[in-house]
Amino acid sequence: MKKIAVIGDPDFNVGFRLVGIRDVYDVQSDEEVVKAVEDVMKREDVGIVVIKNEFLDKIPISLRREMDESVEPTFVIVGGEGSVEVLKEKIRRAIGVDLWK
User: Fold this and answer.
1) Burial (0-12, 13-18, 19+ Cβ within 10 Å), 6
2) 28 to each of 2, 15, 21, 35, 96, how far by Cα in Å?
3) pLDDT band at residue 91, thresholds of 50, 70 and 90?
4) By CB distance 3.0 to 4.6 Å, which of 19, 36, 48, 74 could disulfide with 25?
5) Among the listed residues 24, 78, 22, 36, the one whose alpha carbon sits nearest the alpha carbon of residue 54
6) Cα(87)–Cα(93) distance, rounded to whole angstroms?
7) CB burial class (10 A; 0-12, 13-18, 19+) of residue 20?
C-alpha cells in the first residue's frame, strides 16, 4: 500500500501528524522545499504528496513540470485559489476518467 507524504511548515503539518500521517517534511527554506520534493519523487512507497500552495513559487520550473506530469506520486496542492480544479484534473489524468461528468 502506498503512503501519503506531506510537505509544509510545522504549523501546516501538525494536523496531518494528528491524523496519523508519519511521512511529514517540515520545511522552512526554499532549499528544504526543493530537497523534500526531490526526495518524495524518488520514493517508491509514496503515492500522494500533499504540499502547501505557497511553496510552489519556491520550486524551479523544471521540477514543477515533473510534479505536474507525475501520476505517482500525485501532488495535491492545498490552499490558494483553484486548487479544487487542479485536483480534479490530476484525478482525471491519473485514472483516465472525469468523475464530475
Assistant:
1) buried
2) 26, 17, 19, 11, 35
3) low
4) 36
5) 78
6) 10
7) exposed
Task: Write the CB contacts of 1 (distance below 8 Å, at least 6 apart in sequence).
Answer: none
Cell digits for 48? 500522494
Q: How confident is the model at residue 77 (pLDDT cuts 50, 70, 90)?
A: confident
Position of cell 512507497?
A: 45
Query: Do 99 and 92 contact (CB within 8 A), yes or no?
Result: yes
Enumerate the H helices of 19-95 as residue ranges: 30-42, 61-69, 83-95
Q: Is 97 helix (H, G, I), strand (E, B) or coil?
A: coil
The 3-state DSSP class for residue 45 equals coil
Beta bridge partners of 6: 24, 50
The whole-model pTM stands at 0.78
Is the Cβ–Cβ distance between 19 and 41 less than 8 Å? Answer: no
**Distance, CA of 87 to CA of 42 (rounded, Å):** 22
